Amino acid sequence: MNPEISRVKDLLFEEMELALATTCSLLPMIREDQWDYRPRDDMRSLIELARHLAHVPAQELAILQEQSKEQVGKLVMSISRLRDAEALSEVMRDGVLALKEYMNSLDEKELLYRSTAPFFAKHQPVVQFKWLMEITTHLYHHRGQMFTYMKQLGIPVSMRDLYGPASNSWTL
Prior knowledge:
Blueprint (H helix, E strand, L loop, with lengths): L2 H24 L19 H19 L4 H9 L7 H21 L2 H6 L1 E2 L9 E2 H25 L6 H5 L9
Antiparallel strand pairs: 1-2
Helix pairs in contact: 1-4, 1-6, 2-3, 2-4, 2-6
């Protein structure tokens, strides 16, 4: 594989690993009595959001591999009762590992040009590399949502929880 393409893929994986590590450190900060918090009636509860975030890698992998709506639905339902931070973290770790294995199995041409379409948008195929970018941004979107929910609940979270020790030196 072209070294530049491989480097960009590795950088996306680094970002995904950071999202994984920080999500796994945020989840245990949530108390059992806080899981049902819902900022508005038309939004997910904290536990629903945490489940979705933890499942993004595996769920998106199933979608990009063109699994059916029924197959993806079964996958989603498989964690619908989880309420434990460690179990949710394990789901996310397993999903990231499976996604990385899949993406690393692709050669350069497949990564850049092979298109797959989700069951809900068969007329809109997406190349594998773009899927990787979308999944990474999807993780950060929901991690940011979870961080905001936690702030609203008064859980003492900070930029360090999102970006690690390097954020201590950041100023605006």
